[in-house]
Write a structure and sequence with these properties.
The protein has 12 helices and 11 strands. It starts with a helix and ends with a helix. It has a 6-stranded antiparallel beta sheet, covered by helices on one side. It is of the alpha+beta class and 359 residues long.
């Protein structure tokens, strides 16, 4: 491998792609930064099978290249740019993705969980299992979350017969490390471990019970499938939001109560003022001080008086021009309001005012 790596390190380009520094190394090969030298000048990663010479390594790499170039899970994996061989050693070039950021808040962790679980469900529905889900193999591309490093990918039926530890052992579930095949529940263990590594303190506090159950050593205590894990994550998120919702409701109720009390208080003040205006205005009318009466009766009307006599006297003042300019139309308006409130003699006055206007 050292000889191959030494030879490849002296290669400047493969086809239209310029080779850059090493960006990763795995069981089946190495990854180098790559830059396209012709339009559209894309940036990618060259993965080449500079492995240890074992057939399993080359076979795994060829399987990964074939899946990367296929249309399967198209928007859930990095875009495939090109593939070929260098002196008989297979390689392929794919879109370069960014790693998942650490210390994510709860909302983003849940969004990442939804996207990752959705991809794993799609693989499961195709009868496939990845077997090496970890932070290093999940990233972000311009079109969303993607999974890569598909050298460990295989059908569920094949995985059920394979008791080897495939991928990185320290991320594996207890039963896989004990020589049992990788299953959907084993993947759930890996997903819980990955999500835990990207949580900030608050998100970890909320989701820690979910992760603990997702990594339970006993399969009977672990989530049985991806959907159950996803539901548990959303339930934990909703539960964490309950105190905020209750606080919001409490503030809203308090605001409504304060507004109601202010309304009652202001209504009482308005009623007291209105009653005072009525009393002053009616006394002034009785004393034939029509200017003063018109002023205070008008203020009583403006503050919402429900005393029909107020409007009756205002109608009289406007109809006869007592202390103010005569205004028959305004007098009719006040007379109609007096009728509505049941003031004595208001209806004959209204008829008289309307009749005088028709002459």
């Amino acid at each position: 491998m050292n000889e191959l790596l030494d030879r490849f390190s002296r290669v400047d380009r493969l086809g239209d792609w310029r080779i850059g520094p090493v960006v990763g190394e795995g069981r089946s090969g190495m990854a180098f930064e790559a830059t396209e030298t012709v339009p559209p000048f894309r940036t990618g990663v060259i993965k080449i099978n500079l492995g240890n010479g074992k057939k399993s390594s080359r076979k795994s790499f060829v399987r990964e290249r074939a899946f990367a170039a296929s249309d399967t899970l198209r928007d859930g994996k990095p875009e495939f740019f090109a593939g070929g061989e260098w002196h008989g050693i297979p390689y392929f070039i794919m879109e370069r993705v960014t790693r998942l950021p650490r210390n994510q808040p709860l909302a983003k962790v849940v969004k990442t969980a939804d996207a990752l679980i959705a991809l794993l469900i799609r693989l499961r529905d195709l009868g496939l299992i990845h077997r090496d889900i970890k932070w290093d193999n999940v990233g972000l591309s311009p079109h969303g979350l993607v999974i890569y490093d598909f050298g460990t990918l295989c059908p569920f039926a094949q995985a059920a017969l394979d008791r080897r530890i495939i991928g990185t052992g320290k991320y594996k579930a207890y039963e896989v490390c004990s020589g049992n095949p990788c299953t959907e529940q084993s993947e759930i263990h890996a997903v819980a471990t990955l999500l835990e590594t990207i949580c900030d303190e608050r998100a970890l506090e909320v989701l820690e019970p979910v992760f603990r159950k997702g990594r339970a050593s006993e399969l009977s205590e672990r989530y049985p499938d991806y959907e159950t894990l996803r539901a548990a994550i959303h339930k934990a998120k909703r539960r964490s939001q309950l105190p905020k919702m209750l606080a919001f409701i409490a503030v809203a109720v308090f605001g409504i109560l304060v507004a109601a009390l202010l309304y009652v208080h202001n209504s009482g003040k308005r009623l007291a003022r209105c009653t005072a205006f009525e009393h002053i205005g009616l006394e002034a009318y009785a004393a034939t001080n029509y200017v003063k009466a018109a002023h205070f009766l008008q203020r009583a009307a403006d503050t919402g008086s429900a005393n029909g006599l107020v409007y009756y006297e205002l109608a009289e003042i406007h109809a006869r021009g007592r202390g103010i300019r005569q205004d028959r139309i305004q007098a009719i308006s006040y007379a109609q309001r007096a009728v509505e409130l049941g003031a004595t003699n208001a209806l004959p006055m209204l008829r008289r005012l309307k009749k005088s206007g028709n002459r």
